[in-house]
């Protein structure tokens, strides 16, 4: 077991903080939107949301990385979950982003993922790359990955479906990071 204190990250517009039991109602609301969940397994009931949150916290405990709750700094509102994910047989440490639909188009997914990728590369000097696992028809997430400087590398059959694996290596991230910081400043 990896003993990891879950850090809090702050960006210009967001706070990425540890998940909390008080987040359950907010995540139930977010995950009850069929458009939001179209590419991520469908709507979830309160029990499923709680179990997913427990798995997210378990990811931190078992691997030293995991997702954060994403909170809008200006309002204090829970707007999603983003961060990192890995599990046995997964193609690598994955950058993940799930932003509630009424906040789509604001760049929050890219901003949160930028913070997460920067954090994991700083924490794990041996990590060669970060991946994102995306259903090919999820064009919005494909655009986020591309804006992060990720490129498609291959298809993998994961959780019963073919997913595109996007990657960015440490060297390319170092070149992309200054541009990300400028984009996030606006």
Which terms summarize this structure?
5-stranded antiparallel β-sheet, disordered C terminus, globular, alpha+beta, 3-stranded antiparallel β-sheet, 186 residues, 8 strands
In short:
The protein is built from 5 helices and 8 strands.
Describe the structure in your own words:
The chain is α+β, with helices and mostly antiparallel strands and 186 residues long. Helices cover 35% and strands 26% of the residues. The chain has helices at 24-31, 46-63, 108-123, 139-147, 170-184; strands spanning 9-10, 14-17, 67-72, 78-85, 94-99, 129-134, 151-158, 161-169. A hairpin with a 3-residue loop joins strand 1 (9-10) and strand 2. Helix 1 crosses helix 2 (46-63). The longest helix is centred in the first third of the chain and has 18 residues, at 46-63. The chain is globular. The termini are far apart.
Question: Structural class, from secondary structure content?
Answer: alpha+beta
Could you give the order of strands across the largest sheet? 1-2-3-4-5
Mean pLDDT, rounded to whole units?
A: 89
What is the percent of helical residues? 25-40%
Order of helices and strands: EEHHEEEHEHEEH
Low-confidence region ranges = 181-186
Quaternary structure: single chain
Number of strands: 8
Number of helices: 5
The description of the largest β-sheet is: 5 strands, antiparallel
Shape: globular
Q: Work out the strand percent.
A: 25-35%
The separation of the N and C termini measures 40 Å
Radius of gyration: 15 Å
